[in-house]
Every structure is written in structure tokens, then in C-alpha cells.
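Here's a chain:
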Amino acid sequence: MPQPIRTVLLGAAGVLAAIFTTPALAKSSSPAKAPPIKAHALLSSHELWATIDVCAPIDQPDTVGVRGSMPGDGQAGDRMYMSFRLQYLNPSKRWVDLSSGAAPSFVAVGGSAAAREGGSSFQLVPVAGKPASELRGVVDFQWRRGRKVLLSAARPTVAGHKSVAGADPAGFSAASCLIG
């Protein structure tokens, strides 16, 4: 399935983003048959990660791909969602969200019976005369039961996820990407 392409102007102002996990547990109003999720197990799982899987390869210049993985909570009726964003490293060495003019939205990645992956690509328009920008991705994760968010987390991109689908070149995984 092709990933959506987003166009972003490098050098745009953004909002400083929180990069730490912020779990938000909600009390379940579901029937007793649906057990509560095990937040610690999900948040410490090796299946919860984000990576840069595309960094301006020859066939996709000025494109950055962000991919995430999240573990399932074992409940087939629960759903999992991801939201993808890019950040740049500003002169003060702080990561700042790139502004794309649209509010980030969560994308359903499937039922929560098993781990799921998802991704998004961003096509950038470098500003002439500006130096290259160091970019990273952040993936926001949500586990939901109906409309209720059971747990939320965020992860910045890291290297080391060599077998991700959609990587270009195959097997590519990085923490950040230099564009410009």
C-alpha cells in the first residue's frame, strides 16, 4: 500500500514538541469481559519503536519516510493508531516540529490482537541558500477501545530496525536524516 506523501517547506516555524512518552490511562467503562491493558508491558516492548526508513534516496530526492511499530494489547476488539511528524534541529540544538499547515491526524493501523507497523513519507522543499537541515521523526501511538483512548505514547526515531517494510534502500533505518 503506498504511503501518503506530505509536502513541507524546510525552515518553517514549528512548535517545540514533547519527545518523551506520556502515557494517558483512561478508566474503562467497557464490560468486565474486556480486561484492562497492561501499560508497562506495551510501553517497554521491543515492538514499540520509530525509525527513519527513507532519507532522500536517488529515486526519492528530498523525501523522508518515518515508520513506526507498536505491540498489540492482545484484545482483537481494540484498535491501534499512529500519527507521524517531522522535527528539525534548530540552532539552539532543540528539536522543533516542522509546520505543514495541517494538524496531525491519527491513522488506524489495525486491530490490537498483534503488533502492527505503519508509515508516512514527507516530501520536502529545501529553501535555496539555506544550509541542510537535520531531521528526525516522531511517531505518536494510541491504543483505543471504541472511542476511548486507553494508552498513548510517543517515540522519536532511532536506528537499528533493519527489516522494516518500505525502506529505501531495503533495510535502511536511521535516527535522523540530512536534507538540503
Observations:
- The chain has one domain: 5-179.
- Confidence is low (pLDDT under 50) at residues 7-31.
- The beta strands are 5-9, 49-55, 63-70, 75-89, 95-97, 107-112, 116-125, 133-145, 148-156, 177-179.
